[in-house]
Design a protein that fits this description.
heterotrimer; A mainly alpha (219); B mainly alpha (312); C mainly alpha (646); A: 219 residues; mainly alpha; 7 helices; B: 312 residues; 11 helices; 71% helix; globular
Chain lengths: 219, 312, 646
């Protein structure tokens, strides 16, 4: 009985995460996008908390806390800070229009389902059915990285991919060993910081954070 | 026989209550703008006044223009018959969800032809925009209803969906339901020409869609058109209240259950009207070419609703 | 002489005599009228085929022409005869309409019409591969010859594309002959003989492409709009309705009966993708056309793609569900084909009548015709409502059946789980988009104020023109309101003829009663009207609200403006657009010109490649006798080696 309750809560949270990823694709403002990411991570932390509570694994509590601190507070703060620092316009410039992006998202969710479907039956962990969701979040994050011009949106896409992967590991195998997770968190922070500095540099050099300017570097 | 009677009562109830719902929406909106606003019974008085008036008809209109208000009203009456309101049993060979969507198409098609009748620029503009929205609304509506079929394990009948949902108990309360309801709610707002898709309160050329098509109507024709569009809003709300959140609806013909069902649907309608008014007061009318974003979102939500049944 | 022989003689001989009669010298009009009347007699006999097959009963029979392989045999199953009856009725009404357009009755044209009727009937009831191929080729050729008067480029484009399809069909049936070892079609039962699923999947796919060239499957629709807009309207009507019926019937029979459905999900998915794309594309393109006939051309493409989509869904259901819903899906396809024949012929003849009475072909010069030709506008309204699938007309029932079947299928394997919602979405989008396009067609031709003087000067419509239109309109309403028994008949015919499980009619009869819908709608209208008559109020005629200025003919929405919002929303799909300035008539007008991406990006490159290839081939033709002998030698050696080693 208890298990079904947890299962339900995790399902709802997973769908919420999926919705938030789709929502981030539709947002046209940078600030909103960062907020969506923070919420996305918050929901992830909630899932982690329930998984930890159910399995009584202390290391999942730690990753949960780390998610809360880093992804809900620190990274969004840092992104906002970079935004203000480089005075970028708040508009995100998508390469694919919003209706088009939405339809592509739907297609990717379908693909994720088709890929995950044969595996889903064999997973008997709590929330093991979230596999397809995590796969679609990864795909959506990667789509975001490919279809948005600004360097900062690309970093948010990367973070979404990371959240998707995290959801996957959490629900398939109750998380990775603690040391690996520390490594991943560290990587993410470094990636975001580097991307932030990168954005700052691009801005300084080209007076815009539009990465399509980087194409000029190819010759 | 009994179910025909109940259907008739439900239809009459919907017709009777729909101006009231519009009145409530208007009143709440007025209150939120710190105006006193008109009485919630004002729509009834408007209709009564329109019915008493003579009609003016453009000389470039054909017989179709005079027939359209009747057909629109008939389509809505038929829909009112089909929709379960406080009791789930309805006339069986009616209440298919696909038929339902096509009856809305009938209504819209007639309205669009009516808009083109007078040969005025406003009518053409309203018709053109309405058609643009409809292309995006209708698939979303179909998919939202289809996801309810799948969720309720195979009922494609409007009356069987609430019954099956109630039978499912708490298992029905899953993400798919919320997603489908969200998608349906967006189509509700869009289909009924509400902010942010259209502004029902203005007659400003650049913004109007629904009102543009009604511009040439007057007197009784206008009364029928107004009443049918008020009914459309109420029917949509009723569908949201009985198909997506059926709890409270009566599945038997017993007095107490029916009473509970009646109270439940009234409460639901008032709550939806309130929510609609809050929504309309809190956001602005968006640009016409931004509406596809929201409508695609509704479409994707409906798709997600179906797929979430499988991935979870 | 047996009943069947008598029947087939009655069916074919009058048309044959009519065709021969046009070769006689003498009074043009009289002879062509006689031949048309003779053809009409054949049509009446053809219309009775369904009843005849049931009552007499008609048996399959063969004409033994000595050493010719297989003989020319025909057979009458209930599916073919149903299609024959419906096609004959449409044919008959088109002929009646043609009879009252004397300027269209040329001798040659009438002869071809007689021949086409024979070809169509023979193709539908053919029981041997030879007869089938001959009849199909005759259909293609006569329709090509009937389009005389259209631009030569467009005619030859039609000729080339449909012959490409004809070639594929020939190859497929040749392969069938080889595989079964007989050219008797009734001996082909599909199951068990073609053991390799891949082979039958390939054959079916090729057949869909082959018949798709005639039906306007993407990307073979390139001939449609131009030919429809320039060829004589009656030829177009027959081409769009009766010939499509033949193609769909043959597709259905060869897929489900002669070849047999392979256990393979990729085949239906490939066809589904093509058909879904084609139907949405047809609906989208019909939205931007400015000639009624071109709108109808794309509408044909859309409808036929939808039918092909149904067939593909039928295959998919057969594979996934073991035939539970297949028959229902096929019934939807069949019903839609029949309905399409009726509403499309109604609309095309309507457009032809408008052209005859007003001389206008461009939608931007029409408008307000409902006031000047009220009867015609009634018929057109019924046709429009049917095409737009508005309840309770016939188009509604078939679209309802398609969506209903897909929704009922609900869930199944993972492929279905993903496909079904997408199919519902596609059907919804293209249905609504098509409805927009037809609202535009009716609205800008019949409603509003006239955009040119020729509208006001429209000649009155004669009886000869209005009777066939009235009958077609009545058929549209009838097939809509009494759809449930019709669906039942079709479903029985399908499960009798094809190797699919019978339909559970409860899915339809418990969910839909168009008659009831019609009655309630009519009742509410009548009650309201009665009430309004009882408490009468005055009606004042005024001019349309004009904001204080005098409205001239151009001060109303244009048809291009009407579709503008949708064009803007879907602009990535429409491809290149160009604004064209038109300075004729003293005032500058602007139009938007669309180029079909398919013609530009697929057909034109193919044409160029062929040109290039022919240049290279030309080099081989050196004129040197030794060279030709060398070719012969090389060919001989290759063949000898092939015979030895393969």
């Amino acid at each position: 009985m208890e298990e079904i309750l947890y299962e339900n809560i995790i399902d709802v949270c997973a769908i919420l995460m999926l919705l938030l990823s789709v929502l981030s694709i539709t947002t046209t403002r940078m600030g909103k996008l960062v907020q969506h990411f923070a919420l996305h991570s918050l929901v992830l932390a909630v899932i982690a908390f329930f998984v930890a509570f159910y399995t009584k694994n202390w290391h999942i509590y730690i990753t949960c806390a780390l998610t809360l601190v880093l992804k809900v507070v620190v990274i969004p703060k840092f992104l906002k800070y970079t935004m203000n620092k480089i005075n970028m316009e708040r508009e995100i410039e998508p390469i694919v229009g919003i209706p088009g992006s939405l339809l592509i998202c739907a297609a990717m969710i379908f693909i994720a389902y088709l890929v995950a479907e044969p595996l889903m039956g064999s997973l008997d962990t709590l929330g093991g059915t979230c596999f397809a969701v995590s796969l679609s979040i990864v795909l959506i994050g990667m789509f975001m990285m490919t279809s948005r011009r600004k360097a900062l949106t690309e970093s948010v896409g990367l973070l979404l991919v990371e959240n998707g992967l995290f959801l996957g590991t959490l629900t398939i195998s109750y998380g990775m060993p603690l040391i690996v997770e520390f490594g991943v968190f560290f990587d993410v922070i470094i990636a975001v910081v580097i991307l932030g500095i990168f954005a700052y540099r691009i801005n300084r050099t080209f007076n815009s954070v539009d990465t399509s300017f980087l194409r000029r570097l190819k010759d | 026989m009994m179910s025909i009677l109940v259907s008739a009562i439900q239809a009459v109830f919907l017709i009777a209550v729909s101006p009231l719902i519009t009145g409530i929406v208007k009143k709440v909106k007025a209150l939120m703008q710190h105006r006193r606003g008109a009485d919630i019974l004002q729509p009834y008085r408007d209709l009564a006044k329109l019915l008493r008036k003579d009609e003016t008809v453009s000389e470039s209109t054909s017989f179709l223009f005079r027939v359209i208000p009747f057909v629109c009203m008939a389509a809505m009456t038929l829909l009112a018959f089909m929709t379960p309101v406080f009791f789930t049993g309805i006339l069986a060979p009616y209440g298919d969800i696909v038929t339902l969507v096509y009856l809305f198409t009938l209504y819209r098609f007639c309205m669009v032809l009516g808009g083109l009748e007078g040969g005025s620029v406003f009518g053409g503009m309203g018709s053109s925009r309405e058609m643009m929205m409809s292309v995006l609304i209708e698939p979303a509506l179909l998919l939202a209803l289809m996801s309810m079929c799948v969720l309720s394990n195979g009922g494609t009948d409007i009356s069987s969906i609430p019954t099956l949902l109630i039978a499912l108990g708490s298992a029905a309360f899953c993400p798919a339901l919320l997603l489908a309801a969200a998608s349906f709610a967006i189509t509700l707002v869009a289909e009924n020409a509400r902010i942010p898709f259209d502004n029902p309160a203005t007659h400003l050329e650049l913004t109007m869609i629904h009102e543009g098509m009604l511009l040439e109507y007057s007197g009784r024709g206008l009364a029928l058109m107004e009443l049918s569009s008020e009914m459309r809003l109420t029917i949509f709300m009723t569908m949201l209240g009985t198909m997506f959140f059926p709890w409270g609806i009566s599945t038997t013909l017993e007095g107490l259950d029916l009473l509970v069902g009646l109270v439940a649907i009234l409460v639901k309608l008032v709550v939806f009207a309130f929510l609609l008014a809050v929504l309309e007061s809190s956001i602005s009318k968006s640009r016409l070419f931004k509406t596809p974003n929201m409508l695609t979102a509704s479409f994707v939500l409906a798709l997600l609703a179906i797929i979430s049944l499988y991935i979870l | 002489m047996s009943d069947s022989e008598l029947y087939i003689a009655l069916l074919l001989l009058p048309a044959l005599i009519g065709a021969v009669a046009t070769l006689l010298p003498g009074k043009k009009i009289l002879i062509s009228r006689i031949s048309l009347v003779l053809c009409a007699v054949s049509c009446v006999v053809g219309a009775l085929s369904y009843t005849a097959a049931y009552r007499l009963p008609l048996e399959s029979m063969s004409l033994d022409i000595g050493p010719l392989v297989g003989g020319y045999s025909v057979s009458f199953d209930s599916l073919s005869t149903a299609m024959m009856s419906m096609s004959s009725i449409v044919y008959l009404l088109t002929l009646v309409h043609l009879l009252s357009c004397p300027e269209r009755c040329e001798k040659g044209n009438c002869g071809f019409i007689c021949l086409l009727f024979m070809a169509v009937m023979l193709a539908m009831c053919a029981n041997s591969i030879i007869l089938l191929l001959v009849a199909w080729e005759m259909v293609t050729l006569t329709t090509f010859l009937m389009t005389k008067g259209s631009d030569e480029v467009y005619r030859w484009r039609y000729f080339t594309i449909t012959h490409f399809g004809g070639l594929i069909i020939m190859c497929v049936f040749g392969a069938l002959w080889y595989l079964y070892g007989t050219c008797d079609l009734s001996a082909m039962t599909g199951l068990g003989v073609i053991t390799d699923g891949l082979v039958s999947a390939g054959l079916i796919l090729l057949l869909f492409i082959g018949f798709g060239t005639k039906l306007g499957l993407v990307p073979f629709h390139a001939w449609m709009p131009d030919l429809y807009s320039t060829a004589p309207v009656h030829s177009v009507t027959l081409l769009s309705t009766v010939c499509s019926n033949v193609a769909i019937l043959l597709l259905m029979k060869s897929t489900f009966l002669w070849i047999g459905v392979p256990d393979n999900t990729y085949l239906p998915i490939v066809i589904l993708t093509l058909a879904a794309f084609g139907s949405v594309w047809g609906a989208m393109e019909s939205l931007i056309q400015t000639e009624p006939r071109r709108i109808l051309a794309y509408s044909s493409m859309e409808n036929m793609s939808m039918v092909i989509l149904c067939l593909a869904m039928g295959i998919l259901f057969e594979v996934e569900f073991e035939g539970d819903l297949t028959a229902l899906m096929l019934a939807a396809a069949m019903l839609h084909t029949i309905n399409h024949a009726f509403f499309k012929s109604l609309m095309l003849l309507n457009v032809g009548t408008i052209e005859k009475l007003t001389g206008e072909r461009n939608i931007d010069r029409m408008g307000g015709l409902a006031l000047f030709l009220p009867l015609l506008s009634m018929f057109a309204l019924i046709g429009t409502l049917s095409m737009a699938a508005i309840p309770p007309m016939n188009g509604f029932v078939s679209e309802w059946l398609m969506i209903k079947t897909v929704v009922t299928a609900g869930t199944g394997t993972s492929v279905l789980n993903v496909l079904l919602p997408i199919i519902v979405a596609v059907l919804g989008v293209c249905g609504t988009m098509a409805a927009v396009s037809y609202a535009r067609l009716y609205g800008f031709v019949f409603l509003g104020r006239p955009r040119s003087e020729s509208m006001r000067e429209a000649r009155p419509m004669g009886k000869g023109l209005s009777v066939p239109l009235a009958l077609l309109a009545a058929a549209c309403v009838f097939l809509g309101i009494f759809a449930v028994p019709v669906v039942r008949k079709i479903a029985v015919a399908i499960s009798d003829t094809l190797t699919v499980a019978p339909v559970d009619m409860g899915i339809v009869s418990e969910a839909l009663d168009p008659a009831l819908i019609a009655v309630v709608l009519a009742l509410v209208c009548i009650v309201l009207y009665g009430l309004f008559r009882l408490f009468r109020k005055d009606k004042v005629k005024v001019s349309t609200w004009d904001c204080g200025t005098e409205l001239n003919k151009d001060m109303q929405y244009s048809s291009e403006g009407f579709s503008q919002p949708l064009v803007r929303v879907f602009h990535p799909f429409y491809g290149d657009t160009a604004e064209v300035k038109d300075v004729r008539g003293g005032t500058d007008t602007y139009h938007i010109r669309f180029t079909e991406p398919f013609i530009r990006h697929i057909l034109n490159p193919v044409g160029k490649a062929v040109d290039l290839l022919s240049v290279h081939v030309e080099r081989m033709q050196s004129g040197n006798i030794q060279a030709y002998l060398a070719y012969l030698l090389v060919t001989l050696i290759v063949i000898l080696l092939a015979v030895r080693f393969i």
